[in-house]
Amino acid sequence: MTLIKLPLKQSVGGPDKPTVNVGDSVRCGQAIAVPQGLGAKLHASVDGEVTNVTDKVIEIKASDQQTYDYVKIPAELSNLEAIKEAGIVGCGGAGFPAYNKYAQQIPDGHLFINAAECEPILGHNISRIITDAEKIIRGIEYVKEIVGAKDVAIAIKRKHTNAVALLEEAIRGHDDISLELMLNRYPEGEERAIIRDSKLHKLLKTDDLPYAANAIVTNVETVFRVAEAIEDRKPVISKDITVAGRLHGDNEVVEVKKDVPIGTMVGNILEDYPNMAQYGELIMGGPFTGSRTDIAAPITKTSGGIIATIPFPSLKGKKVGLLACACSATPERMKEIAASMDAEVVGVEWCKNAVVNEKTGHAKCINPGICPGQAEKVLKLRADGADTLLVGNCTDCTNTVMGIAPKLNLPVVHTTDFARRATGERIMRHMLPENDQ
After folding, report:
1. Integer CA distances (angstroms), 413 to 119, 229, 436, in order
2. Closest Cα partner for 237 from 115, 16, 35, 88?
3. Distance separating alpha carbons of residues 144 and 160, to the nearest angstrom
4. What is 3-62's CATH number?
C-alpha cells in the first residue's frame, strides 16, 4: 500500500479547506481542497481512498491499479482561470499562487523566466528544459499574453550549454523572447539579482517586489505547468525532483525524477536506492536554503530536491561562531547543523548586507550576491570566543570570509559542505564564478 500525504498548506496563504471525507474514493486530478482567500486548489495525485482528513493534511491510500489518467480542467475556462483551477503555484520558491501573480497586469512590462537553477546540485529545471523546451516556450507565451508584458527574458546560467542551445533553437521566430546568460555564482537565481543583472540594470529595495520594476519573475517549471494546464487541461498533481547523495554505496549520484506524484513520501522515493550509504541528514530543497527532513515527509508543489549528505564530522570541544547570510541558512538552521557536529555555538552574526525583519526574523539581502566585506563580522565572532567558523554565505561573501579567516587561524565550515561532498562538488571556499558549481 502506498500512502500519499497532501499537506493543506503548500503555498503562500492559509491552509486549504478539505472537500472530501474519510472513506471517499477519489480520482487522480480531482479537486480535494480549496483555498480560503489567498492560496491554490489541491488535487488528488493518485486514484485511491481517503484515509485521513485533518486541518493540516489529507491522506490517500493509493489504489493498486492506477489508471494513469486524470480529471481534466473544464475546457471552457479561460487561460487565467485554468491556471487557477489547476492550483499552480511558484515551483521554485515560496510558492506564490500563480493565478494571483499573473492577474497583476504589467503593460509594456518585462516577464523574466527563472531558469538559473540557483542552488547547486539541483538539476530538475535544466532537465525539464532539455526534454520540453518547446512546451516551456508555449507556456511562456501564454503567461506573457495574460500579464500584458512586452518582452520576455529567460535567465539561465551560461554553464548549462546544452539547455542554452535548446532554448536558442526553441525561441527562433519569437522576437519577443531573449536569453539572459547569468554568471555561475550563488545566488544568481534570486529574483532581485535577475532583475539587477538583466538589461534593466535595476537593484530593487529589499521590500520591493518585481512589480516595482514593471516586471514579473516566474520559474521555468511553473510555466511548463501552465502549458500543461492550458493545453492538456491538467491540474498540478506532480513535481520534478532532484535526488542526490551517496545513493549507490559510496558512489556520488545526482538524478532527476520527473513528475513525482505530490504527496509521495521521501521514504518511498529512497526505496529506489537500497544501497544508500549512511547519511548525516536528509535535506528537502537545495543545500543553501533547504531544510532538514525525514522519510515520512511528503513531496509538495514547491519541493525541489532530496539530498542525503555525508555523515557530520565531530567538532566536540570546538567553539563555533555562526555567520548567517540572508540568501542561505537561517541562524536556527545553522544551530541545527552545529548541534549535529556536537559544537558549542558562542556567537551569531549576520552578513553586513542582511536586513532582518524584526517581526518574522526573515532576512533579505541588500544586494544579492555582491558582498561588502565580512572582516568586521569575523573579528566580532573571534572576540566572542569562536575558534571555528560555520558560515552559510553566498559565493562572494564566502570569498571575503576566506580573505581573513585563515589569517586568524580560524577554520571555516560551510553549511553546504556536507551536501556538496556527498555529490562530488567542490566545497564553498574561495571560488571564482566559473568554478562555483
Report:
1. 18, 44, 16
2. 88
3. 24
4. 2.40.50
User: What fold does the segment set 319-435 form as a domain?
Assistant: Rossmann fold (3.40.50)
In whole angstroms, give the CA distance from residue 250 to residue 262.
29
Who contacts 61 (Cβ-Cβ below 8 Å, separation ≥6)? 1, 2, 3, 4, 48, 49, 51
CA distances from 294 to 230, 283, 398 (A): 35, 8, 29
pTM of this structure:
0.95
Q: Where are the domains of the chain?
A: 3-62, 79-231, 238-308, 319-435
Task: Select the CATH number that applies to the domain covering 79-231 from these four: 3.40.50.800, 3.40.1190.20, 3.20.20.70, 3.40.50.11540.
Answer: 3.40.50.11540
Fold of 238-308: Ubiquitin-like (UB roll) (3.10.20)
Mean pLDDT per segment of 10 residues, for the chain of length 437 residues?
Answer: 93 96 98 97 98 98 92 98 98 92 95 95 98 98 98 96 97 96 92 94 95 97 98 98 94 96 98 94 97 98 97 96 95 98 97 89 92 93 98 92 95 97 92 57
Q: Are 310 and 246 in contact (CB under 8 A)?
A: yes
What is the C-alpha separation between 6 and 296, in angstroms, rounded? Answer: 12
